[in-house]
Specification:
The complex is a heterodimer of chains A (120) and B (109).
Chain A lengths: L2 E5 L2 E3 L5 E8 L8 E6 L5 E7 L6 E3 L7 E6 L4 E6 L8 E8 L7 E4 L3 E5 L2
Parallel strand pairs in A: 2-11
Antiparallel strand pairs in A: 1-3, 3-8, 4-5, 4-9, 5-6, 7-8, 9-10, 9-11
Chain B lengths: L8 E4 L5 E6 L11 E6 L6 E4 L13 E6 L2 E6 L8 E9 L2 E4 L3 E5 L1
Parallel strand pairs in B: 1-9
Antiparallel strand pairs in B: 2-6, 3-4, 3-7, 5-6, 7-8, 7-9
Chain lengths: 120, 109
């Protein structure tokens, strides 16, 4: 079935780095733009980044620009988020989400998320 | 990139209708017909309920409807049911990014 499964979360000290992954299955991964969306504990959704279907275009939220890098490997149906200079404000459940097919800016499939906790 | 504005909470009794508003600016909600609504139950991933202001994905009940006027979008749920109790988030495309609302907790009394 169509699904997204995130991994790579954990507890990390402020200033350190972490790399998240999202494994896609059940659809043609290379046809769709992919996003990362995070949710701090007890808070709402915050869009983080998007990468185009072929990896040629990437955009970031101001809060992570210059620290996070989104990438994808279409040969392995995998999405990544490299996070550097992590701060306590980055503590959140990180979801990957797929765009389309209904609309280019609606997320029809979400993963359950991987938790990132930034703490000393 | 300020979040879209939603009421923190709304409530209604079974069978009633409720409306959740989502207010942005002419740069996001008012400027594009790319407003979506998501339902999130505790501990679950968000679920797409409405896309492009007023369209329902396959499998979503027709009790859910969306609309937009100027810089404000709205989600209406008619014939409230107990399982509708959840958080609801609006989102809008804006110049190469996506903005979410702060979320609204719907309580079915």
């Amino acid at each position: 079935q169509v699904q997204l499964v995130e991994s790579g979360g954990g507890v990390v000290q402020p200033g350190r780095s972490l790399r998240l992954s999202c494994a896609a299955s059940g659809f043609t991964f290379s046809n769709y733009d992919m996003h990362w969306v995070r949710q701090a504990p007890g808070k709402g959704l915050e869009w983080v980044a998007v990468i185009s279907y072929d990896g040629s275009n990437k955009y970031y939220a101001d809060s992570v620009k210059g620290r996070f890098t989104i990438s994808r490997d279409n040969s392995k149906n995998t999405l990544h988020l490299q996070m550097h200079s992590l701060g306590v404000e980055d503590t959140a459940l990180y979801h990957c989400a797929k765009e389309g097919p209904y609309s280019p800016h609606a997320f029809d499939i979400w993963g359950q998320g991987t938790m990132v906790t930034v703490s000393s | 990139q300020s979040a879209l504005t939603q009421p923190a909470s709304v409530s209604g009794s079974p069978g009633q209708s409720i409306t959740i508003s989502c207010t942005g600016t002419s740069s996001d909600v008012g400027g594009y017909n790319y407003v979506s609504w998501y339902q999130q139950h505790p501990g679950k991933a968000p679920k797409l309920m409405i896309y492009e202001v007023s369209n329902r994905p396959s499998g979503v009940s027709n009790r859910f409807s969306g609309s937009k006027s100027g810089n404000t979008a709205s989600l209406t749920i008619s014939g409230l049911q107990a399982e509708d109790e959840a958080h609801y988030y609006c989102s809008s495309y804006t110049s190469s990014s996506t903005l979410f609302g702060g979320g609204t907790k719907l309580t079915v009394l």
